Amino acid sequence: QVQLVESGGGLVQAGGSLRLSCAASGSISSINAMGWYRQAPGKERELVAAISSGDTFYTNSAKGRFTISRDNAKNTLYLQMDRLKPEDTAIYYCEATGFEHAYWGKGTQITVSS
User: Which pLDDT value is given to residue 84?
Assistant: First the structure.
């Protein structure tokens, strides 16, 4: 069992920055990879960024603007978001992938105004 709690969401103007945090607890040793997903109203959930032992992934729209990182000592995942655009507006979810299961946080709202 893994529990994930996101924080850091909110309202920001275009061009601004936000830093999301995801605190993990429970069976941390079962986690192989972690990532950030987002879902806008009426759209499917998409993977924004992911991190494993030595690799990171970014969707094209996030590449160059977002940075995913993980502090293993604190069991916390981060997503630094810079130069935000209105198109980034969505609910952002923290996800952890284990051998048998994917674990999800409840999500945090990001709203970018122009």
Answer: 98
